[in-house]
Amino acid sequence: MLGDVRLRGQTGVPAERRGSYPFIDFRPLNNTTHSGEIGTKKKVKRLLSFQRYFHASRLLRGIVPQAPLHLLDEDYLGQARHMLSKVGMWDFDIFLFDRLTNGNSLVTLLCHLFSTHGLIHHFKLDMVTLHRFLVMVQEDYHSQNPYHNAVHAADVTQAMHCYLKEPKLASFLTPLDIMLGLLAAAAHDVDHPGVNQPFLIKTNHHLANLYQNMSVLENHHWRSTIGMLRESRLLAHLPKEMTQDIEQQLGSLILATDINRQNEFLARLRTHLHNKDLRLEDGRDRHFMLQIALKCADICNPCRVWEMSKQWSERVCEEFYRQGDLEQKFELEISPLCNQQKDSIPSIQIGFMTYIVEPLFREWARFTGNSALSENMLSHLAHNKAQWKSLLPKPHRGGSGGGPDLAGQGAEKEEQTGTRGDTP
Fold this sequence. Notes:
Layout: E1 6-8, E2 14-16, H1 41-60, H2 74-84, H3 94-100, H4 105-116, H5 119-122, H6 127-139, H7 150-164, H8 167-170, H9 175-187, H10 197-202, H11 206-210, H12 216-232, H13 240-255, H14 262-275, H15 283-298, H16 306-329, H17 345-368, H18 372-390, H19 403-417
Antiparallel strand pairs: 1-2
Pfam families: PDEase_I
Family: Belongs to the cyclic nucleotide phosphodiesterase family.
EC number: 3.1.4.-
């Protein structure tokens, strides 16, 4: 194990080294020759730690992985540039954009957004250093994860860009607010292992112990981001007080994405909207709405057009099922929503939409004054929910039968007990 991999800088906020998260290798699940060799929790912990430790040790020895040079056809680059001209459109296809940029959607998107928002000029950022930092972030996402990967981060960042343009919010935002929103969106799931918090707790993972079983993944994403900011020295030229504030606000934003805090934030938003006491001239209220915007961006997949929404749904369920297979392999209790034999994709998605997505996006629509974007998202949400209902197994469809109730069981359990810890 790596032990406590935090680095304490001059600001006093603990940060984690790059590559501090043990890589989780699912290949043994398909390797019958070793089926009898891995059976204890102790061996599970070794599996979770070795490969990621090897990556970290290479970094500590100064051996930085060199990304291969990819020469893209000019037609692809032209199409990518054309797509960036429409990056504020809700039907932006992040999967196509990732293909056109040869898997560099997050870096390309962030460089473009930092430029168009004037952040490079305002904060006097060095473009080479910014690019280096963004490459570090992109590389610390696990490409083998079906869902929690750099494409998801790019998708959330594009959604955040759309939300930052909402008229009710945009006129109050400062350059710092915009930079914080984009950075938090880009790094909110960095180094995600593809399993949830309960899995880390029941395998006695060192990060679960480090963060005392509280917002384990979100704390890790935040501290890893701070580590990369310091390693890249992207903000080293800014005053110390400002960098301290940026690090703390990034933490507050990323920690807000913990799905177990959903009811907390939803209740606060409803109260503000009921009392009509949001004052966006006040930095605290603006920060709260940035938290809400990031939460919406993180779970906005059901509000995308069906073709993209369906892809995301299949990806996240594949990640759930992989965890369930891993738990079954090691004779651990299978987590909610992770049993492929019992939890169908339609039922998971309908429950998620009903209990998590719809309540939040209804309140977001109230905040925006039912903006065109909000109405568009709610329209897609209703359509996608109907599509998933039509795909439910036949015994669970229709009328007042068991369909909706069955579909809600997983999300209800998640909302009440916080056992899943991820977002479909």
